[in-house]
Amino acid sequence: MSSHREAPEISKDPVADNTDVYAFVSPDKPGTVTLIANFIPFQNPYGGPNFYEFGDDVLYQIHISNRGDAKADISYQFRFQAKIRNKKTFLYNTGPINSLDDPDWNRPQYYSVTRVETGRSRVLARNLAVPPVNIGPRSTPKYAKLAQKAVHTIGADRKVFAGQRADGFFADLGSIFDLGTLRPFQMAHLIPSAAAMGVNGLQAQNVHTIALQVPIRDLTRDGSTPKNVLDPRAVIGVYASASRQQSRMISGGETLWHGPYRQVSRLGNPLFNEVIVPMAEKDKWNSRAPKDDKAYAGFVTKPELAGLLPVLYPGVFPRLAAYKKPRADLAAILLTGIPQGVVPGFQNFTGPVQADMLRLNVAVPPAKSPNPLGLVAGDAAGFPNGRRVFDDVVTVELRAVAGITIPLVDPSFTPDDAAGAIKDGTSNTNSDYLTWFPYLGVPAGGYQTKPGIPAVS
After folding, report:
1. Of 367, 363, 418, which is closest to residue 391 (Cα–Cα)?
2. b/e string for 300-317 if b means 16 or more Cβ within 10 A?
3. By the 8 A CB rule, do 298 and 363 touch?
4. Chain segment 276-292, per-residue pLDDT in tens
5. What digits encode the pLDDT tens for the residues 307-322?
6. What distance in Å separates the CA atoms of residue 383 and residue 182, rounded to the nearest whole number?
7. What is the pLDDT of residues 17-57, one digit of tens each?
8. Which domain of life is it from (predicted)?
9. How many CA atoms lie within 13 A of 100 on its CB side?
10. pTM
11. Which parts of 216-364 are beta strand (E)?
């Protein structure tokens, strides 16, 4: 979670595992949209001497759909290449790394950015430097300033960053996967225990981030910057993917890839493949395009978790247990966007094609006082209108599945009292988010991070 190790095959290929996608109107530059795709989950900061890096053999992409057919109308492609400066040492660095071209950094990585639109490719930049990982105060002194130098300008009002960041997602993974336990409410669980605070399973974990900030006009179907929230042109769909070439050959300690690229991971909405798609379908889902997601609509309109909540928490969700209609509210939130008329003055509807994408209405300005619960708390600039780095998507989706959003499409339904209070009890306990691009916090350092304390009872 959000999409960390969400399917059997991609869990064996972390360098291509897309963990989170974010899309939001930039709060400090509201004429632009920031797009973020994270990869390589659960990075231990002290994982040397071969530290984490992007895959030179992976094609990373962020896709934009802006014409209502859930197809990728615009794609930004990112390709990486690592170099070894000193072939006679096993070390990642032989001294402090004080700049992006420091000769003491033995394994730098570079990348290119290509924009593809209507089948035409245009290289926007080449040989952009990735910052080193955060090793510690001796190897990577003044890390925050060093990493900020890897924010590259690739045109007027356009920025890009690729490198290690603190994981911005937070969730009580240890509790949730222990038979759906939510620590603040575990006294009501089928197997009860005393209520407790949530534990962030992502604490001190890093990811590798690809972040892009571009003018709104770069992403809309006609190159406009819509100001009317109800204008269909204001809504874009966003998802990210990772692809590998079709065949692999291992020879003499070297891996060679051949053939056309095939998608092995993709992500739009948080938790979609994680908790909605059945295990037997997860790998197939990762390989398919969003435009084909009608095949999975039944798992959205009758989600397994909605059936489990009344069983795991007896007597807490009687109205949810009695509700047998297809979940049109979840279908709107996750598969089509919310049509005009459901939420007064708001819509992020991309059309009838059912597809898992983040849907962002770019005419909604950044909130002056953001609420991490987003739209359900009256903050239309937050999830599920796109997704900001600090949005509490676990709480939002738990409450939606529990029935709090059903009245939007079925006014006859009254949610259970617990639906508006359910949460896993966590908050971000990693590095603070930034208020500027790339917004995700400084990654945890290897030297500074203390391993956790294991427990067996």
Report:
1. 367
2. bbebeebeebbebbeebb
3. no
4. 999 999 999 999 999 99
5. 999 999 999 999 999 9
6. 22
7. 999 999 999 999 999 999 999 999 999 999 999 999 999 99
8. Bacteria
9. 18
10. 0.97
11. 235-251, 254-267, 358-361
Sign of CA dihedral 137, 141, 144, 146: negative
Q: What is the pLDDT of residues 90-129, one digit of tens each?
A: 999 999 999 999 999 999 999 999 999 988 999 999 999 9
Cα(54)–Cα(164) distance, integer angstroms: 9
Mean pLDDT of the region 207-231 = 97
User: For 429, what's the count of Cα atoms within 13 Å in the CB-facing half-sphere?
Assistant: 14
Q: Are the C-beta atoms of residues 312 and 190 closer than 8 Å to each other? A: yes
Cβ(362)–Cβ(219) below 8 Å:
yes
Evaluate whether 419 touches 163 at the Cβ level (below 8 Å).
no
Distance set, CA 131 to CA 100, 143, 326, 442 (Å): 6, 9, 48, 12
Q: Cα(18)–Cα(60) distance, rounded to whole angstroms?
A: 9
With vertex at residue 5, the alpha carbon angle to CA 58 and CA 183, rounded to the nearest 5 degrees, is 150
